[in-house]
Amino acid sequence: MVPGSPVFERVTSDGIVVHTDPGLRARSGIIVAFSERAGGQSEAPYDSLNLAAHVLDDPVDVDANRAALLRALGIGHLSGALVTAQQTHGQGIALLGRSDEGRGALSSAGLPPVPATDVLLTRERELPLLLLYADCVPVVLVVEHPEPAIAVVHAGWRGALTSLPATSVHAICMQSGCDPAAVRVYIGPHIGSCCYQVDDDLLSQFTGEFGTIAAVGGHLDLGAVVLSSLMSAGVRPEHVASVSECTMDHVDRFFSYRASGATGRHGAVAVITKVG
């Protein structure tokens, strides 16, 4: 393994399960975490660590779940600074500064989330970012040097087809001044090719754009498409770590819209903490 390459550990704290990279945190103070569905207080069908305010869950439970997740990550003091977005399966990328602190942090009050955005990007310290998923591909981009930067990406099939992951790599490199080869990538749990059946027309659009890697036995391999998009932007394969579980295959651990319809959302969280 190349020193500094991304790795995942599945960690449980106070009943909350996350996939994270402790080495990254120890090295640079950057936290990346993908949550599972256990450990919250939401009732079915949102049981139990639902982080989404746009579903018909009790807003009090959603706010409590978000706060509990940040406490489990050791950043509970930053709950009020959390930034979320109105995700639209579009191309919106938001560069966030200190003035964006707390946008969408509370599901029922306070500042509204960042509108029409599927990528949150920042160089600010102690500004935690959260996007939400239930089958789509969660991607977190990390730059450690010369100055830290993070981006959280929501890549559904629309975003993947239009190469939103590659666009996000270019955006973080532009803001941080780094080469794409220096970007570390963390890919969270998402629907696998084992379960992602789509119509022939959509599948042909993907194979036309990305080649045969997009299709496995007539199913769409969204993870392979996202990886291909990242590689096209200059990301190195050894700088990518991925959670391999399929969300639709593991509804006991993850939320899956395809499997359940009405359901909650797990999250991708990233934050640059203060070091020293």
Can you tag this structure with a few keywords?
about 280 residues; 7 helices; CNF1/YfiH-like putative cysteine hydrolases; alpha+beta
Describe the structure.
The protein has helices spanning about 20-30, 60-70, 155-160, 165-175, 200-210, 220-230, 255-260; strands at about 10-15, 15-20, 30-35, 95, 120, 130-135, 135-145, 150-155, 185, 215, 220, 240, 265-270. The protein is α+β, with helices and mostly antiparallel strands and about 280 residues long. It has a single domain (about 10-270), classed as CNF1/YfiH-like putative cysteine hydrolases, CATH 3.60.140. Strand 10 and strand 11 form a beta hairpin.
Topology:
Layout: E1 9-13, E2 16-20, H1 22-28, E3 30-35, H2 59-72, E4 93-96, E5 119-122, E6 129-133, E7 137-143, E8 149-155, H3 157-161, H4 164-176, E9 184-187, H5 200-210, E10 215-216, E11 219-220, H6 222-232, E12 240-242, H7 257-260, E13 266-272
Parallel strand pairs: 4-5, 9-12
Antiparallel strand pairs: 1-2, 2-3, 3-13, 5-8, 6-13, 7-8, 7-9, 10-11
Helix pairs in contact: 4-6
Overall mean confidence score, pLDDT: 96
Estimate percent helicity.
10-25%
By CATH reckoning, the class would read Alpha Beta
In terms of DSSP E residues, the strand content is 15-25%
Number of domains: 1
Which outline best applies?
Answer: globular
What would you report as the Rg, rounded to the nearest angstrom? 17 Å
CATH homologous superfamily classification: CNF1/YfiH-like putative cysteine hydrolases
Q: What is the H/E order?
A: EEHEHEEEEEHHEHEEHEHE
Task: Profile the largest sheet.
Answer: 6 strands, mixed
